[in-house]
Specification:
Length: 658
């Protein structure tokens, strides 16, 4: 590791808290040091209070903030005097400790201070850095980890035996630190947890962290326990395995009691890991650091027997909850990490962001396990210690907080024709309701129109069966299944009377507007059948179905065809708990086919202004893509849970239709 400190960049942060922000981001930007909210940093600053009195304030990372992107509002200011008094207490429950931290902040709007605030306070240095460095955690997770840490660091660090995070850890550190710190002390190693560095300047504290972690890296290198196969080397050729993965997701969702997402990573690294002769031993020890259990559970699931995993989890809960200090409620017993030769590494979560976090954490866990195995053997903390963190009273308290998840949390939608108009609006409405969305379009902009973990854009020609299958496969590997299918893609050819309509033009419209829908219904059916809350399909029809106009024969016939197809699909798929409904929009003018010139021309032909033309319906209202998309989303939601085979107009009222 190398120091990334840049004096020119640092000069832009011209005060103590600013430098704290800068060096925190340097630490947070290195995933071998901290991952997804892990680690903590602080700075001690003397400030005048409202009475003009000087007060020593600890600015410590607040709950919910990530070091990689933290800014000034991410640090919670807590009065040092009170923190030091708390450190002298014989005991303090974690909930009482959090209350004391929150009630002794100097800014009511600040985030909840880190539970390690007292620990940061008892270290007298101005700047304190704490990471979960992979290299250090690797060494501590071996049978002789303590002796190895002593060999690596000598008297340059104070070594703290593992202790549950919170007040007990702060008190233990205060006692050991007071007795063992010398002029040579640069940091502190918390066994099976992480490492601290500290100094009176942000730069020195940061660079001490780099130097200390490098000592563990060099130790592992000297014992030929550092170099591993690249995670991106030789990606295994993907096989078509739609139904097994969708079935796995369905089984996990049942165990979790709600729909879950499953993200797969077929990197060669994971297949090699899974095929190890000792995999059933090394991966069942526990996480690299107890903090990770909240995300990954204590152990992964090997293979795909979810019932067996659930039974094992219940035994784990029964065994260790009996020794718990407080009464605890069992969390859902579904796995969060799955190791299966068919898929590689699969990460499970309620949201796409959760699955990415689980994947990142377990990727580093694999590295820690493999390096520890090269050094000696991987040995995690005992089950009781892991359980105590998983069922920490602060985590249990979160279960009691009121709050409602978005209605489509854990569910996956696929939208065709997603790059513009109604399709894009459908993507936005579904994302807003918590769904992970796969957007398909022949326009390449579909790939980049959203950069977020719950969206996957795929260039796809919906008239080609192979493209449809490939798109379903990509969506499956990214999110695990399919719950909602919105068939929106279509073309609207130039007006043409039947006598002038060529067979080629007719067939092109049929192929894209109708045949593609048939292909999607057939190929997606096995996935929708496994949707935890039942499958939902919305077909995009048209006002032209009940009220066609001259010059639109191919378009009107295709839309009438898919309307009839949807009715038959509703009859055939209903027994599989899949509901199929059709929308008939009209005069949706904020789409690519309606340019300002075309709108003006059409309005003039009716003797209207453009605004009057847009509202040429009984309700005198404009129909926008967003209006259609909102109705699509609602038809996939609980409001229409008992409706299938329906046709619903969204046209502001058309006299010919009525």
């Amino acid at each position: 590791m190398k120091s990334l400190w840049n004096d020119k960049e640092a000069s832009e942060f011209n005060d103590d808290l600013g430098l704290r922000v800068y060096s925190s981001r340097l630490l947070g930007g290195d995933p071998t040091l901290v991952l997804h909210g892990g680690g903590n940093t602080s700075v001690k600053i003397t400030e005048k209070n409202i009475l003009g009195e000087d007060e020593n304030i600890l600015y410590v990372k607040g709950s919910g903030w990530d070091l990689e992107t933290i800014d000034r509002p991410g640090f919670a200011p807590v009065r040092m005097a009170h923190l030091l008094k708390l450190a002298e207490l014989d005991s303090l429950s974690d909930s009482d400790m959090v209350n004391e931290l929150k009630t002794h902040m100097t800014l009511a709007s600040a985030p909840t201070p880190s539970v390690e605030a007292i620990l940061h306070a008892i270290i007298p240095d101005k700047y304190v850095d704490h990471t979960h460095a992979d290299a250090v955690v690797t060494v501590t997770n071996t049978p002789d980890g303590l002796e190895r840490i002593k060999e690596i660091y000598g008297d340059s660090v104070v070594i703290i035996p593992y202790c549950m995070p919170g007040f007990d850890l702060a008190r233990l550190c205060a006692e050991r630190f007071k007795k063992e710190r010398t002029d040579k002390t640069l940091g502190m190693v918390l066994m099976n947890h992480g490492i601290f560095s500290f100094a009176d300047s942000a730069k020195e504290s940061y660079e001490r962290m780099i130097r200390l972690v490098n000592l563990s890296v060099k130790y592992l290198k000297s014992h030929k326990a550092w170099t591993l196969l690249s995670a991106t080397a030789h990606l295994r050729e993907e096989r078509r395995s739609n139904k097994p993965l969708a079935q796995l997701r369905a089984d996990i969702s049942t165990a979790a009691g709600q729909a879950m997402l499953v993200k797969t990573n077929p990197a060669f690294k994971y297949y090699e890991y899974i095929k190890r002769d000792d995999i059933s031993t090394i991966c069942m020890q526990g996480p690299a650091t107890p903090d990770h259990v909240i995300r990954t559970k204590r152990v992964p699931m090997l293979g795909h027997d979810v019932d067996d995993y659930v039974d094992a989890y219940k035994r784990y809960f029964d065994k260790y909850s009996a020794k718990s200090k407080n009464e605890v409620v069992m969390l859902d017993p579904a796995p969060r990490v799955v190791l299966d030769e068919r898929f590689g590494l699969s990460s499970v979560g309620r949201t796409a962001k959760d699955t990415c976090i689980v994947e990142d954490i377990y990727d580093h866990t694999v590295d820690v396990i493999l390096r520890a195995s090269k050094l000696d053997r991987f040995q995690a903390l005992p089950g009781q210690d892991i359980f105590d963190v998983e069922y920490w009273e602060l985590e249990q308290a979160k279960l009691k907080k009121p709050g409602k998840s978005p209605i489509f949390n854990g569910e996956i939608a696929l939208v065709t024709g997603a790059a513009s108009g109604i399709g894009r609006a459908c993507v936005e409405s579904l994302l807003a309701r918590g769904a992970a969305v796969v957007g398909l379009d022949i326009n390449q902009t579909v790939e980049t129109m959203f950069t977020r973990p719950d969206y996957l854009g795929i260039v796809c020609d919906v008239s080609i069966k192979q493209h449809i299958n490939q798109a379903l496969e990509k969506g499956l590997r990214q999110f695990g299944g399919l719950d909602m299918l919105v068939l929106n893609a279509g073309i609207f050819p130039a007006s043409c009377e039947i006598k002038d309509l060529s067979l080629e033009a007719w067939r092109e419209v049929m192929q894209i507007n109708m045949d593609a829908c048939l292909l999607f219904l057939a190929e997606a059916h096995p996935l929708l059948k496994l949707a935890p809350n039942g499958g939902r399909i919305v077909m995009m029809g048209s006002k032209n179905v009940p009220a066609p106009g001259p010059g639109a024969a191919a378009y009107s016939v295709a839309k009438a065809g898919i309307t009839q197809l949807a009715r038959i699909a509703a009859l055939e798929m209903g027994p599989d708990n899949i509901r199929v409904n059709t929308l008939h929009p009209d005069a949706v003018f904020d789409t690519a086919i309606w340019t300002e010139e075309v709108l003006k021309s059409r309005a003039e032909s009716y003797g209207m202004t453009v605004e009057e033309y847009k509202r040429k319906n009984i309700l005198k209202t404009e129909i926008r893509s967003h209006d259609v998309a909102e109705l699509v989303a609602e038809m996939c939601g609980p409001l229409f849970a008992k409706t299938t085979g329906a046709q619903l107009p969204i046209d502001g009222g058309n006299d010919r239709v009525i």
